[in-house]
Write a structure and sequence with these properties.
The complex is a heterotrimer of chains A (180), B (353) and C (301).
Chain A: H1 5-28, H2 33-38, H3 42-60, H4 62-69, H5 73-86, H6 91-104, H7 107-120, H8 134-154, H9 159-175
Helix pairs in contact in A: 4-5, 5-6, 6-7, 7-9, 8-9
Chain B: H1 5-26, H2 37-47, H3 61-76, H4 88-105, H5 109-117, H6 123-142, H7 160-174, H8 193-210, H9 214-224, H10 229-247, H11 265-282, H12 286-294, H13 298-316, H14 328-347
Helix pairs in contact in B: 1-8, 1-10, 2-13, 3-7, 3-8, 3-12, 4-11, 4-13, 4-14, 5-6, 5-10, 6-9, 6-11, 8-12, 9-10, 11-14, 12-13
Chain C: H1 2-20, E1 30-36, H2 41-59, E2 62-68, H3 73-78, E3 84-87, H4 89-99, E4 102-108, E5 115-116, E6 118-123, E7 138-140, H5 147-159, E8 170-172, H6 179-188, E9 194-198, H7 199-207, E10 216-221, E11 225-226, E12 229-232, H8 238-249, E13 256-259, E14 262-265, H9 266-270, E15 274-276, H10 284-293
Parallel strand pairs in C: 1-2, 1-3, 7-8, 7-9
Antiparallel strand pairs in C: 3-12, 4-12, 4-15, 5-11, 6-9, 6-10, 13-14
Helix pairs in contact in C: 2-8, 5-10
Classes of the chains: A mainly alpha (180), B mainly alpha (353), C alpha/beta (301).
Chain lengths: 180, 353, 301
Amino acid sequence: MFKDTFDKLCWLFLIVVLISTVVLIYTNIGTGSEKRAAGPSKTLERELSYRARVDLINQLYLPVENLRKEGNNQTALLKLDELIRKYPTEAHGHILQGDILQRMGAFDEAISSYVEGVKLNGDYVDTKSPLSRRAEIQKLVDGGLKDVGPRVAANPNNRSLVIARQKLNYLKSRLAGGCE
Amino acid sequence: MIRNREFWLVVLSGLSLGVLGVLLSLWGNPENSGICVSCFIENSAGALGLHDNQRMQYLRPELIGFVLGSVVSALISRDFRSRGGSAPLSRLFLGIFMIFGCAVFIGCPIKLLLRLTAGDITAVAGVVGLVVGVWVGLKGLAHGVEFAPQSQSKASGGILIPGMFILLLVFFIVRPGFLLFSSQGGGAQYAPWQVALFVGIGLGALAQRSRFCITGSIRNFLLMGLRTPALWGLLTFIVAALMVNLITGKFNFGLYGQPGAHLEYIWSFLGMGLVGWISVLIGGCPFRQLIKAGEGDVDAGLVVIGMFIGGALSQSWGIAATASGVSMYGKITILAGFALITVLSMFCRVRST
Amino acid sequence: MKIYHLMRMFIALVVFFAIAGCKTEGKRQVVKIGYMLCNSEQETSQRFLPLTKYLSDKVGVDFVMVPVDTHDFEKRFKAGEFTFTHTNSLIYIVLRENQGVQLLASEKRGKLGSRSAGAIIARKGSGIEKLADIRGKRMAFGPMLAPTGYLAEYDMMLAAGINPENDLGHYTIPPGSYKHEKLIYGVLYGMYDVAAAPVMDLENMTRDGKIAADDLVILAQSKPIPYCTFGVAKDVDPGLVKKVKDALLSLKPTDTAMIDGEQLKVMKAAWIDGYEELLDSDYDQIRDMAKRVNMPPYQKY
């Protein structure tokens, strides 16, 4: 690869390009120009928007949370209905609804709401997320499987019970983690 | 056979993959995904901004390690040879569909065994599918289905894929602003990067020396029976992973509530069947393609590029399955994959006149 | 001669095609379903006619809809006027205990699915903040055989030590149709101080914008209990029962039925979200309530 002038010129050009690259990087480190060129860190940007989203969600659903804390579950549910119709793809409403329905004793409907919420946004089963409801969902699944399991065994042809168990197993699978 | 060096290399590879596959999960990688080439590719494609699933973005150091370990090993053993020119575009597309198959099953053949040895019996459908897929691929080979032979003279780009992975390592260390990292979900679960990189390099080097590969082992077993060392490597992998899972308390036997698993057995079967069939035609599972790309195999390099495209599309287009099941797009994709490989088999078949 | 032959052939062909063109309608088995009147006969017919037609199409039997007043339901069922029943959960229990009716499927509607709850409501700002405040007040109940418009609320009051017969100023049941809506409006506009309202009606009226969630105070609310229920007489062909059950449980939002030349969405027309397979033991809560409140089928004089 050093046979003729063209080869030599190629090598020379390669060395020049490499040296220029190193010099360019070296002279620009710390000046901030590389940040300007690449724009702000996407990870930071996303983290900021995520936090803003969490704040917005908390603010949006605060009246419902307050009613729930006061024990006005039905009024909270009515308020929530408006919000779910307004933001149907926002998981938080479904998660809150699951929580309220569980408190009201509507177990099967609570499971369905949680499943809907977790399908829309898996952050609710993450330990790290500020939106995490992992402990509540875990409790629901543990209690639910204990309750539904024997009922399915006693009524194997009951489709509604089988569906309820499937939903619980879905939540169990999401709680177990994995890469998806 | 046990006096054979190759036998022990294969056994050592199987042992290392099995043990470290479980340990990586214990050290921080997602459950049952200590090593999963397809998941790692989906994560890495996301980190590079190729898809927008914010829960699946992390440049996996293991992936970089596999290729660089293979490069180092190939250079030391003078195995590094730039070669290629065998149906490059077909391989690129088959790489894409190989990842689609994995995405529908939720995992590559290595993860298939890691899931199984962790007690996830939903993976049985995948095992059967993989074996059937390899068997069908072998039947194709027996009937003259093969791509044109590679040539050293036609390929000069063998350094490109190693170069790309060196660049990815630089990106990972320097962390330029355009790189994306998940803060939630599977992408936010990872082992310490130094450990992951070191393990990746070690496994890459071992796999380069031993040529160990899950689908290759099944293929060799179907061709040669118990005489093949690859089978013992595979069995060592399974026993080692099972033991480590049992010792570390990660073993959870059952059908329901398994991490990263669904109950659509037919599609698990078909997904892995597609992976098995493609693997036979292109000479190895996703892991083996990375190793071969590290040896200077340009064709395998194109499969790797295809796998990255597949990883990105499986997330962007909603092809990847989740615990709730396989999407309609996922199902259509699998069928499209079978259509593609059938057509390719017909076109590249060498018919005896 | 030839013309005579041709004429005979022509007549024979006409007769053949006339017979071939006849519809086979009316030859199918006819089965009647008794539907408990909700707000009015017209509304009940509008809601459930598409469902009845859907069942006919699915099961291959001509189902006929029979609208039945709540108080006449048991008497007419006993007289054999209909085989399948669509009632509220309390009437189902009455029919189960007295006539051996079997549970078929439970209707899903609203947030609580196949269940609903009863609530005691007051107007916000009326000074009535808790259940104990209703003593001496004017109260309106729903119809007497309404599980979530009467039974559940009566039971909650007894549990709280309030006897509706003695401790209220007076109580009433609004006359005519749309009783539940009437009493909710009645509380909102000051006709009554408190009322027994089914949660499902509160939910529907909020959704329709008739009331706002903040307009009312919920003083007490029962546990969710099963609501509208399909039942069937005990001696009906099990094959037919299974077909009807399968048709109800497999009902989807996209399923339609042809009524007067128009394809109507069955679930939308009936205001329901589908059917679920509950166990008869799920109705035990209502049985316990009926016993405590001294209502049919456990009423003691």
